[in-house]
Structure formats: C-alpha cells, structure tokens
Design goal:
Elements (H helix, E strand, L loop, with lengths): L8 E3 L5 E3 L3 E4 L5 E6 L5 H10 L2 H8 L4 H11 L7 E8 L2 E10 L6 E8 L8 H15 L4 E7 L3 H9 L4 E6 L2 E7 L4 H23 L3 E5 L8 H12 L4 E5 L5 E2 L2 E4 L11 E4 L6 H11 L3 E5 L5 H14 L2 E7 L1 E4 L6 E4 L7 E8 L2 H14 L3 E6 L8 H10 L5 E5 L6 H12 L4 E4 L5 H11 L6 H11 L2 E3 L2 H13 L8 E5 L2 H13 L9 H8 L12 E2 L8 H9 L6 E5 L20 H21 L4 E5 L7 E5 L5 E5 L2 H19 L13 H14 L4 E2 L2 H10 L8 E3 L2 H12 L6 E6 L12 E5 L2 H14 L6 E6 L5 E10 L3 E8 L3 H5 L3 E4 L4 H9 L4 H4 L10 H17 L3 E12 L2 E4 L2 E5 L14
Parallel strand pairs: 7-8, 11-12, 11-15, 12-14, 15-16, 16-17, 20-21, 20-22, 22-23, 23-24, 25-26, 25-27, 27-28, 28-30
Antiparallel strand pairs: 1-2, 3-4, 4-5, 5-6, 6-7, 8-10, 9-10, 13-14, 18-19, 18-21, 29-30, 31-41, 32-35, 33-34, 33-35, 36-37, 36-39, 37-38, 39-40, 39-41
Amino acid sequence: MTGTTGTTGTADTTGAVRPVRPAHALLADGRTVEIRPARPEDRTGVDGLYERMSPENLRLRFFGSGRELGRQAARRVCGPPRPGSLALLALHEGRPVGIAEYEGEDGAGGTAEVALAVTDEFHHRGVGTLLLEHLVHAARAAGVTAFTAGALADNHAVQKVFADLGLRTTRHYDGGEVRWTIRLDPDEHYLTAVDERARTADAASLRPLLRPLSLVVVGAGGPEGAAGRAVLRGLRRAGFTGRLLAVAPGARSVEGVPAHPSVAALPEAPELAVLTLPAHEVPETAEQCGKTGVRALAVLGPRLDTGQGAALLATCRRHGMRLLGPHSLGAANTEDDIRLAAVLSPALPAAGTAGVAVQSGGVGAALLGGLARLGIGVSTFASLGDKYDVSGNDMLRWWEGDGRTDLALLHLESFGNPRAFSRTARRVSRRMPVLTVDAGRSEAGRRAAAAHTAAASAPAMTRRALFAQAGVIATHGIGELLDTAALLHSQPLPTGTRVAVVSNAGGAGVLAADACAEAGLVLPRLPDSLTADLLGAPPAGASTANPVDTDGSGGPRPAECVGRLAEYGGVDAVLAVLVPTAPADGGGSDDGGGGGRYGDGEAVCEAQVRELLRTASTHPSRTIVAVLPGQAERVRLLRSDDGTALPAYAEPQDAARALAHAAERTRWLGRPPGEVPELSGVDTEAARALVGAFLADHPSGGLLDPRDCARLLDHYGIPRLPQLWAEDEDAAAEAAARLAGRRGERVALKAHWPGLHHRSEEDAVALDLGDEDRVRAAWRDLSARLDGAMTGALVQPMARRGTELVAGVVQDEVFGPLVLFGPGGTAAEVLADHAARLAPLTDRDVRDLLTAPRCAPLLLGRRGGEPVDLEALEQILLRLSRMACDLPELAGADLNPVLARPDGATAVDARVRLLPRRAHDPHLRRLR
C-alpha cells in the first residue's frame, strides 16, 4: 500500500474529529489484546514489531526485503496525524504484535488502501482479523465505504483473512499480485462471521476459569468457617482433578493442601486464582497473579469500592486475565475430568446438563437448591456478581459449545451489551431453552437492581422486548423458573396451546381449567365420540366435556383417560389433577367427600399417581403434567424405574404457567428467523447532514422544528400529511387556500413554538377551518391565547377518518433504539398499551408489533370494522427502525397520531428530539 499515517480520530456527522477509543478484545486462542490508534511514543515498539518479523514475513508485507522497510513504516505509522488515514495497533501485555492501517485514496470517493502486519509468533491467532474488524468500524464512521488492498499471489495467509472476514469482496490478479476490494457495509453474513469468531474466542478465554488445569485459593487460611477454607474444602470434597494450591501466610497446609505465603512464592503459575480476601487486598493480589502468569480470576466475597474495582479491572486487562465477579459466589463445573467446585455454597451441585449463571448470590443458592430438590443436575455454574467482565453473554457462548448443556438458567439484573446478548441468546435459544427471571419489573425493583449490581437497569418494556425477540423464557420469580425448568427438563414440548384436563374430582378440574385459560391456554371441547370412548356410560355427575371428570366413583381410572387423550390429535398436552378421594365403595360425592376414609383416599391417589407415571412412560412423545394438590413441594419430578420423569405441581396455576411457557417456546421455534428487509427511497446521507446541521446550531440538542421534522420523515419515505409553514396571519390564509385547492378542503391550524411538546394539552390547535376568514380568526385567537409564545404555525388539510395509532422510537442508554407501537391520539398515554421491539426490526418483529397491543383486533377488521392497510403500517415501523439505527443522535421520535385506513397509513403529527450522541456498534468485538 501507499504510505499511511496513524491518526487518532474519525469524523462525526458535524464534521468534527472524534477519538477512536482504545478497547480490549479476545484473540482466537483466548488471549487479550488492546486495540488502539498508534501514537508517536509507540515508535520503539513498532520498530520492534518489524524487527521480530522474519525476512519472509517482511517480503510478503512490503513486496520486498530489508529491515529499512520496517523502520520506514514505523516512522510513518507513528508520525504526525494526517486526515483520511488511521493506523491501529494490537498490543499484547503492552507490546505491539500487529498493525492494521488505511489511507484514503485521492479522488476515489470513499475508498481507502489497507494493509496488515502481524509478528510471526502471533500468526493464526486472529490478530489480523480482529484489527480489521476495528478498522472497518472506524473507517465507516469516517465515511469510507470500501477498502482496497494488494497482496502477493503467494501470500495465502492475508488472502484468507480478507476472504474469511465476512464482508463482500472482489479480487483480480495482476501478474504476481492480487488486488482486493472489500465493501464496508456489514450485512447478516458479516455479523454471523463476527459472532462465530466471538464464540470461539470466548470459549478459549473461559477455559482457564471453567476448566482449569491448576487452581490456587488465595486467602485459604483463617478459622474453620472462613471463606477461603470453605472453598478449599469444597474443591477437595468434589474431587477437583487439577493441581490444587493454597496461599495462606503463616500456615504450612490448609485442608490437606500445602500452603504458600504469597502468590509470588507459588511453585508454578496456576491457571485460575480464587481470591477470598478483604476488599482492600484484592487489587494488589490481582497484580501479583497477573505477573505470575495466572489466566483467570474469581473474586469472591465483599463488594469493592469504585477505586478498588477500577484497579482490579485495569490489572486484569493489562495481564489478559478473565475476571469472574467481584462479589461472586464462585464457579463450578461438574464434568468428570474437571470436578470444579470453587463456590461459597454449602450444597455443591450434582452433575447434569443445566447451565446456571446468576448475578445475585442469594438467587444462585436458591436456584442450586431448587434444582437439587428436583434432581436436575448442573453442567456449569457461574456467580457473576458485579459482572466487571464475565457476563451472561459469555456463559451462553460457553454453553453453546460445551457439548453438555441443554438447559440454560439466567438471573441478570443488568446488561452490558444487550444487543450482543440478543444475537447470542437468539442463536442459543434455537438449540436449548434459555430461562431467566425478569427482575426489576417495578420502579422500586429497578432502583434496587441498579444499586445491587452498580449498573444500569433497563425498563420492563425494554427487557420484555429483548427476551421476546431472542426467544428467552422470562418468568416472574425463582419458583416459576423452577416450575418451567422441571417441565422442559422432563417432557417434550407441547405442539401448541390446546390442553385436555383430566381430574378425579370435579372441583379440582374446574380450578385447573380456570388456571389454563388465565395462562392463555385453550381447552377445546372434546368430540362426543371421544368422551364416550373415554368414559363409556359415564356415572351420574361425570363430565363428558373438557375438563374430563372421572369422579372417582366407579368410572375409568384417570391414567386410562390420560392415555387415550395422549393418543388424540386434537390436544397438545394433558394435565391430570389427582386429589385424595374416598374409594369407590365409600359412597363418595363428586369431590370425594363421602363416607370413605380419607386415608384410604390417599392410598387410592398414590396408586393413581403410579398409574399416571406408567402412562407417561408409554407416551414419551406427548406432554403430560400432573397437579397433586396434597403434596408439600411446589413442584417435584416423579420418576419411574425406566427413567421417565413427570413434573407434579401443588397448584394448577403453576402447572398452567409452565405449560404456557413451553407452548410459547414451540411457537417461537416454529417461526423461521426474521430478516431485516431492504427499503427503497431512503436517503441516509441527507438525513445525517440534516442532523449534523441541527447539532452544529444546537450543540446540546433539542426538538426539531416542524419543517425539519417533515424533511427527516421524507428522507426515510415515511408518509405524512401535507403541511405548509406560516409565520403570520396572511401566510396562514394563503397556505390554507393552497391546500384547500379546488375541492375546498377544510384545514387545521397548529401553533408552534420552541419546546412545545403536546399541542392538545396546550390547546394550541384549531380544527375544521373552512374559509380564509375562519383561518385568520383562528390565527388571532391562538396568538392571543398563547400570549405571544407562538412563533409560527403548521397549516394542514383535515385528515380523513381512520384508526388512530402511535409509532415511535426511544433511545435506551443501554439497549439502544426501541421501536414502539400502540393506540394513538389522546388514548395513547391513558391506555399505555404499547408494544416494543429492539431495532433493527426484522419482518417477524414488525408483525409481532402489530399484533401485540389490544388494539390489534381493530386493525384486522373485527367488530364490524374494515381491516386497515397492515403493509403500510409495517413500512412505517420498518422505516422508523432504519432511521433509529442510522442516526444514533435520534433520542426519540413520536408519530402521533398515525391514521391507518384500508388504503394506507399516514403520520399526522411528528416530534423528533436529537442529542449529540456517538454511534455505538454493539457487534464490535471488545471486552467491557
């Protein structure tokens, strides 16, 4: 490539240069590198990089030989900044190991020449690809649309990097050289490639934490109940297969493990260090671990203050250590060849296939205890604590590739990169159920979550949107999560929402039917032929509908009915309710309240439960659950000798909710993944120019005036009601005459002034104005009532009648843009019945938005109405989504009302707020 110079910034929409921030990221082998622009003080390090390159590597990089070429490149890279160029370094433990640089090509219109250099010892570790990903991100922000590159024909390594990057490329041969063109517009193919690289790097980096070959417990001394001693005892009891070390000053051994006075005195560098120390000792001990060569830290015990936490994280980044916690319970891995149990928990998890990751230690202990009671074993457990580094996203990627986990349980109070989490969870959810507790649904809960985790907590609507799009099953508490886990662990998914209820007592069956209906399940009426087959000649009082009441008075046994219904194709699941009833010869009533002894009834019920379990064994492909109101446990798993497990609940509501979650998972899996549609008529560059001009005049941001609002909507092809701007009475009359035209349409006059939010609340609208005199009178009336605040007014034709809706965008500080939809007009805030999805919207997301609010039946033409143009509404939502993704400065947009009719949809009013925000790429690989 031609000579390049390292700069430290890219241009934003206002034309100002903004810095490229340093970031830490993972290589393919799990090592950590820092990615940042080259600086003048890097000259010696960059010289060293080229000095360490072999002659063959230098030939491939510079198309020639000689060390002077490297020295020239170092002077250029670390020289004074030049516009249109950028050089990024990859540094491992402070030493440059790779360089990626680009320089804009004169007259090429958004293209730049790019080149890579990586030291020999770091080849095939993903350095070049990682650098290119960050260079692409910076170049796109600076307006570069394509990279060009030249490589010798025998430089197969760099050609593979370009080909495997995931971006659209073309190449042609010119003698002994290959010329590449790389388009910088990321698409789904590129994002998928980045996801796979992130998964590989994550798994490699987490291996020392979750599958360590050696481990040291630091702080293992102290009295019998001390944390470090308890962890060491747990590791010994679990049979940890790696080498176990201890640091306990003044002790020769702890729990049978030889003790050493400090980390520096250890005979070897362990892969994992578990710190059980007072908060003030953690940063310095972490530094010792890094210098010794430790690869991962688990910081258990108390929370660190801000300074201690910053020092700890800086140390981990500098030395490339992954960090679990701080304020963590620890980690466990039950694989036979690992048996890791580095946890502050009295009950060590049994081996199994459920992955568990939690932020709250108390929740973690409760989940482990609940799974143990159910007999569901754990594959991996991680207490994330304050989540400085290792997150729920990391754990999902680990479970995705560990070959053991088939059920993922999460408790997350905050999200560091929710969009990356969404992509990962969406992918993992197709392979296994992912369950979470939706914590912080209330304002008080959100405040507590933010204080508990020292991180931002998201509003309930935003989290629900994330979970719905990603296929994550969100429950309202630990009990409901365990209820659902029991069903998903033991039963096949129901094929739909149709449930048959069988009971041995009529009252219990009615309660179960109510619970199913309230959970959104359907109880279809059974055919007469089927009920006759089920009950034969039913005894007096026995039900032949759904629920099926076997009555306990001489009719067929419940298990028989369950078996018949399991073979019937008209239901998707069978729920059996069994209560202790008197034996048939006791003369019992329909609820078992007759003359039989209750103890005998309990024996009958136990026999019926055993029969039900045998029935489940003979129908392994059908979803069957039991409700046993007499049991003490909220949920348990009944097990047969052949390994069949049947979930049994004490309350029908718990069983119904678990079934509803399972049915929703079936529905989610049955839908193909959505795609983000291509949109015509979008002028992104013009929109960015408009935003840049506004922020140049309003550095702190603000509301766009109506004219700029209209222009912005036009740039994205969002249909709107025609409008003209007037600054005085005469202009308003003239505008009304132009809009009325030959048809004499009536118009509306809408006052405006800077900072106006709701015209209706300010009584700043005059409607149905039919002639010039009325327009002038309305102007004078508004001006007088508003006491001179009015700076102008919009004149619009009166809109035709339609269904009033609201469509909008809000920018969440953590989650990014969120698209909202629901009933509009004056009912929008009163009803507060809005659905939301994270942008960018796929075709599936936009259809979910249209059908989620309670106004959906009106859109579909029910209750005697005519259906509206759903495709037009979809286009508005998709274009809002695109606008929000293109413009990070878009703090909020509100189209209210949007009038939907059978022949289209139109935005009547629009409000847009801009703030000087930077673009954040959630898919760029970097550690927090």
